[in-house]
Amino acid sequence: MxxxxxxxxxxxxxxxAWVCLFDVPALAEDGVKYTIAEDKCIGCGQCxxxxxxxxxxxxxxxxxxxKVTIDADKCIGCSLCARVCPEHAPYGEIKKPFIxxxxxxxxxxxxxxxxxxxxxxxxxx
Length: 125
Fold this sequence. Notes:
Helices cover about 15% and strands about 20% of the residues. By secondary structure, the protein is an alpha+beta fold. It folds into two domains: about 5-60, Alpha-Beta Plaits (2-Layer Sandwich); about 65-125, Alpha-Beta Plaits.
């Protein structure tokens, strides 16, 4: 899932860049407003939540992530999910199935993008 910034309503406050844990929003060529590189955005939606002018929306056809869990039967306990999570939501011991602490997970999908064993289950809206 990726987000876009409406250039007409962006006021250039930088809140999106400040909140993004992945450093995706960047100043546009005009040096005032911001843009989001679609190929770098992982779709966590944090920027949309903080935009004071409601200038950020999901790209057309994108679905919002409702919940992220780990399939214990597929998880090999490699900890890659825990290493890429900005909130340290995946939790467990090496070589044992991990779990995702739902109170920490803000549903960005970074863990699912990195899991090499398809053990991350993402539920969409």
